[in-house]
Predict the 3D structure of the following.
Amino acid sequence: MSQPVLQIENLQTHFFTDRGQVPAVDGVSITVHKGEVVGIVGESGCGKSVTSLSIMKLVPNPPGKIVGGAIRFKGEDLVLASEKRMREIRGNEIAMIFQEPMTSLNPVFTIGDQIGEAIRLHTKTSKKEARQKSIEMLKKVGIPRAEAIVDEYPHQLSGGMRQRVMIAMAMACNPELLIADEPTTALDVTIQAQILDLMRQLNQEADTAVLLITHDLGVVAQMCHRVVVMYAGNVIEEGDVRTILKNPKHPYTIGLLNSLPKLEESQERLYSIPGNVPIPGSLTAGCRFAPRCEQAMDRCRQEMPELIPVEENHRSRCWLSI
Amino acid sequence: MTEELLVVSNLKKYYPITGGVLGGEIGTVKAVDDISFSVKRGETLGLVGESGCGKSTTGRSLLRLIEPTSGEIRFDGVDVMKLKHEDLRKIRRDMQIVFQDPFASLNPRHNVEKILEEPLIVHKIGTPAERKKRVAKMLEVVGLSSYHARRYPHQFSGGQRQRIGIARALMLNPKLIVADEPVSALDVSIQSQVLNLMQDLQKEMGLTYLFIAHDLSVVRHISDRVGVMYLGRIVELTTSNQLYTNPLHPYTQALLSAVPTPDPDVVRERIILEGDVPSPANPPGGCTFHTRCPKAKEECKTVRPQFQEVELGHFVACHLYSQA
């Protein structure tokens, strides 16, 4: 395997609130190699979005703060990087796409202005060249009438088109890492299929590493090489996509897969994981999933397991995996 | 008593577009454009479609929360369209709705007891003591406890709020529940809890559901029959097994093939549709799907296909299957 583009080591991002310190991300380690698509899955509040914002150092401070760990981007620790250095990196070497394309585009600037801004910020180009490059990028992401769209405003486009514009903007500077935070959640299935296809194609053409954050295991199956499953601020299982989806070891991953309704077959009743996702900050000792786990033992309630290797490239944070 | 609890025929909901100097009507948005279907007692009919296809408008029109433009809605033998204010209110005892957003559909200033009691007060049912008892019982039924009655909506998680929404709909012992995207806002593990709850309640209380959702796997799981909507029209309607094993309409085929499956071994031929859903203010003529349909013929551009039964209980609106 080629050398890693991104290495997150034991990242801890905590929020300091009136009610005390909330460990939203608590010791997360993720590695992304060149050209690889790594998925982070988990339910709301598991810390997947905070992890991605931490990489870009976009966690609102206060109340959020990276209190420990390292984020190595091509060897450079971003946790220690200055704000000036971060500005050079953001949008240039690491780009990000968000869930809601309408809120991440500025409504009062044209599409061309916004893509051009990203280009001109990081490369020495004239306005005219930036415009040309914008049109070129729009064509690349499959936008019809690119010459006309470049002068239009975000509200004139549909949701799928706006997400294409976001991707065009993110890819404009040939980033080495693309972070996509729920890029298709707000879109309809037929449009989702288009966008996923486009992202896969760009990943293959430019060899960009992608960190894909999603709650949809179907999207993971289609897009990712490796998967990291998060629960309550921890990585609880990681492995290649096939292993995680076909042969998961952690009871949470198994429960999550079983609670999905299947399109191919009809089931009488769905499996459901009892209880609710724990509120961050109200964590107890021991394994965080223990209160909802049907196989929990005494040990689980007292001692938090490490990520235990199950086989090569497959680790699970569960005492049962030993 | 007929087998069908709800019969909808030629339902239309048009919204006027006003504009111009005098603010006159310059067009119409055909949100729901001539749809007909029926729901049998005790069954779940699913309605699926992408955003803007008119599935929610249909659900709300049935209860006349939105006034339909024209059409006939027969609920339990009564023509809902002809009812006047007071009678309409009474019939709503038997038809209730559960909304998508459990955050927006509960009054934040009322505690759960007040939220659940309100339907009973509106319909003047029971004494205060009886009502309190019924609230406590209903909370148990949906898997909460009677001690939750004093709490406010913000003190609950999304899944629990959706349970409260369901409890509120059940307070009056309705016959029909229109569930408008009831699990879309929930996490996967919570979604399965709520779906199981809805199935249990249906068995226990003999409920009939009209289940509106955009998630095809969820709809398949819960529905006996499924209708697929596109741009205000139902393009295909059949049993849930038939629809998923033998979809006939090209739109249904594309929609099913676009759903990502979590099983890496399932290899499906994926049909990726080009372009977006056209604007309902200016829908294409003929079959509204012809602009994106990979199998469109000349005829599709001009003639609207009839919604007809091609196999027993399998309705489809497509020229590919029309008998000449």
